[in-house]
Amino acid sequence: MIGFTYRFWEADKASENFINALKNINDENNNATVFVILDGENAWEFYKNNGFDFFNSLYGKLNLSPWCETVTMDEICQMDKRKLPNLSPGSWINGEFNTWVGHSEKTKAWDLIFQTKRDYKKYGKKLNASTKEEIVKHFLAAECSDWFWWYGDDHYTDFGAEFDILFRNHLIDIYNLMQISPPSTLFKSILEKKSAINFHIPPQSNISPIINGLHDSFFEWIGCGVIDETKIFSTMDKVRAPIHKIFYGQDEEFLYFAFIADIDSLLESQTLNITIDPIEASIKIPLKSGSGKIKKDFKIEYACKQWLEMKIDKKSFTQRNLNFRFELIKQKRVIQTLPGFGELVCNLDTNYNHNWFI
């Protein structure tokens, strides 16, 4: 919630949600220790005011909560130890290791580390202490999880080649410190050739699809904008969320959206919450098989069968530049925020004449 969701919420609402989560844990076990561990700077760059308002509100509420005490990791280490009956292997991404192992590029990178360690074990015994210390630093850097995050096809960055070179240079430096010629494999790119596909393609022409929740015709959505959520993997991981793609576009009367998803997983959620800025509007679309209309404040038609699609009457808006965010809600918890890159900007007066030619 802190890393991926609270950045879209008002500070007091977000801090209250966090305190309530702690209170629920305390009600079940008033001797519980809760670790709050965040990945560096990734969350705060997306918060308003760099997260200051959220921190200020959260720390204020913690200070006023007599049932909750904040402690440091060092203080935790001085407390009475309790044995865990079980510790499950896994990671913060779906409890699996797939982000760091399994793909052929990731396997190749681990093979290169293994080969370098084998050679160090064979030739490093005669090295002095300071050289060994330098080599250990390079090994630790090469084993950093970030390299393996970018190898493979589950995450994408424009700087993949640079990451690849930096990774291999750590291993090359180890051989140089041992005064051994590095193997030729370390000078070959680990990255496999693959075509780059944009994760966001803007609309090219007007569209006017029928809103019935069905894949009626390929031609209905020709010229629409496409956001491929499976390719938006920079510092955040959303690969296994229910919604995979967003189609969007407009004609003179309506805005159109379609959400391509694992339909069973989508229907297990209760609500799609739509936030529209700068008008600060919030619309809740119930997720159930069938169709419906919303007439209060905004005129919306929606349908969910093979996918979820909707249209919004443009006369509902007085402002022409709008920013859309979508939150998928399940059991009062946000399980996916869309689009993954922040907000979808729509200009209601856009025409596509510049895309036509004779």
Q: Report strand order across the widest sheet.
A: 1-2-3-4-9-8-7
> What shape does the CA trace take?
globular
CATH class descriptor of the largest domain: Mainly Beta
Averaged pLDDT: 87
Low-confidence stretches: 234-239
Residue fraction in strands: 15-25%
- Percentage of residues in helical conformation: 25-40%
Oligomer state equals single chain
The string of secondary-structure elements, in order, is HHHHHHHEEEEHEEEEEEEE
Query: Could you give the distance between the termini?
Result: 51 Å
In CATH, what is the homologous superfamily of the largest domain? Immunoglobulins
**Tally of strands:** 12
CATH topology of the largest domain: Immunoglobulin-like
Could you describe the largest sheet, including whether it forms a barrel? 7 strands, antiparallel
The CATH architecture classification of the largest domain is: Sandwich
Structural class per helix/strand content?
alpha+beta
Radius of gyration: 25 Å
How would you describe the overall organization of this protein?
The chain is α+β, with helices and mostly antiparallel strands and 358 residues long. Helices cover 28% and strands 20% of the residues. β8 and β9 form a beta hairpin. It is globular. The model is unreliable at 234-239 (pLDDT under 50).
Provide a quick synopsis of the model.
The chain has 358 residues and is α+β, with helices and mostly antiparallel strands. The chain contains eight helices and twelve strands.
